Amino acid sequence: MGGADFMHILYSEFFNYDPADMHWPFRDRFFMDAGHLSTLMYAQYYLLGNYKKEDIANFRQWESVTPGHPEVDVARGVENTSGSLGQGHTMGVGATIAAKFLQARFGDWMNHKIYGFISDGGVQEEISQGAGRIAGHLGLNNFIMFYDANDVQLSSKTDEVTSEDTAKKYEAWGWKVVTIDGHDHDQIRKATADANAETEKPTLIIGHTIMGKGCVTADGEMYEGHTELHGKPIGDTGADYQKTLENLGADVDNPFEIFKSVAEYYEDIVGKKERRPMQRS
């Protein structure tokens, strides 16, 4: 829920792809490092018609097409989801190196963007350190990664296990780093535009977000930012599932229905399946 604002701005305003053909070779790529946040991808592609409502409702169920962890389903838009934290970071850097090779071999028209999405646990992983260093050293300016920094991990707050300065760490590796309010659309928009204009460095967008944004208790009291919201269904926490749906403006009887306002917003994208994005010059 905390990273939804970034996904919305990315896919509605910046991501270069063909909704009618997710295999289009000149598309931008998106790599989700945090498999437990794959719901963000599924929800985004549900809006574009790549998943049915039943697929979303069957998240992480046996034989579901929305399993939540390691998978490749390019036809639906999934380049990968990562189970072991840090792997999505590494896959994104690898794809970025491949894109740079294609650009050098065939010209700038092959220089598509690679976007990554990482969580607090992901940036702690040792494999991320190696991927981050090589990306900075090689100056992979076509790699843009959003860091969903909500200060919560599976069993504790992050300050109980780490005190490092993530921004300074990535800056030391040669990255451009910008810190924003991860729920502010104007800040997300500017940070993403600046990252696309960067010519020398990969970009890390540190978005400070709220874990379980919008969750409330049975009494209607706000219940955001709690550690248990990281790994449990809302109804198994101090938050109340039905009251949270109501607080978010959802239909309690049809929780997987797309909000009317959202459907109208995406109507132009979903309804023009023959449209193909222009190649970058």
Automatic annotation (TrEMBL):
This is Transketolase N-terminal domain-containing protein. It comes from the Bacteria. Residues 1-271 form the Transketolase N-terminal domain. PANTHER family: TRANSKETOLASE, TRANSKETOLASE 1-RELATED.
